[in-house]
Amino acid sequence: MSDRVPRLGDEIDDYCPRCRLLLNHDVTSLYNDQPAKVTCRTCHNTHDYRHAQVPTRRKSKEREKKTLLEQVMASMPKPPDPPPAPSAPARKRRDLWAEVERIKGQKKD
Ligand SMILES: [Zn+2]
C-alpha cells in the first residue's frame, strides 16, 4: 500500500521459501529503489525479494494453465450455435429405400 521508497532494514512482508510462509522480512538489499534481497525475521534466511508472491505448486500450476486456456477460449469469439439436429438423414435413408423400391418396381416392369 505504501508508495514510499523502501530502505534497508525496513520491515516488509514477503514469502520465505524456508518457512514457506508469508512473513515479516527485513530489507537487506535494494536495487532500483526496490527490495532485492530480504531476510526472514523468523528464520533469518536471506533470499531474493519475491514481491510477497507465494509460489504456486505443481497442482495449482496445472490449474493455472487450465485457467489460462479458459481465458484464451473466453477471449475468442463464441462459435455460432450448432444448427438444430437435422432430421434429413432419416428422411434421406427413407428416400433411399423408396428409391430402391422404385428401381425394383421399374425392373419388374
Ligand atoms: Zn523464514
Overview features:
109 residues; SH3 type barrels; alpha+beta; binds zinc ion; 25% strand; 2 helices; 4-stranded antiparallel beta sheet
Q: Overview of this structure, please?
A:
This protein is α+β, with helices and mostly antiparallel strands. It has a domain at 1-55: SH3 type barrels, CATH 2.30.30. The chain contains two helices and four strands. Strands 1-2-3-4 form a four-stranded antiparallel sheet, with no helix packed on it. The termini are far apart. Zinc ion binds next to loops.
Query: Approximately how much beta-strand content do the residues carry?
Result: 15-25%
User: What general outline do the C-alpha atoms trace?
Assistant: rod-shaped
Pattern of helices and strands: EEEEHH
Please give the radius of gyration in angstroms.
34 Å
| Biggest sheet features | 4 strands, antiparallel
The secondary-structure class comes to alpha+beta
CATH topology call of the domain at 1-55: SH3 type barrels
CATH architecture of the domain at 1-55: Roll
Strand order of the largest sheet: 1-2-3-4
Mean pLDDT: 83
What is the CATH class name of the domain at 1-55? Answer: Mainly Beta
The total of beta strands comes to 4
What is the multimeric organization of the chains shown? single chain
Instruction: Classify the helix fraction into a percent range.
Output: 25-40%
Alpha-carbon distance between the termini?
94 Å
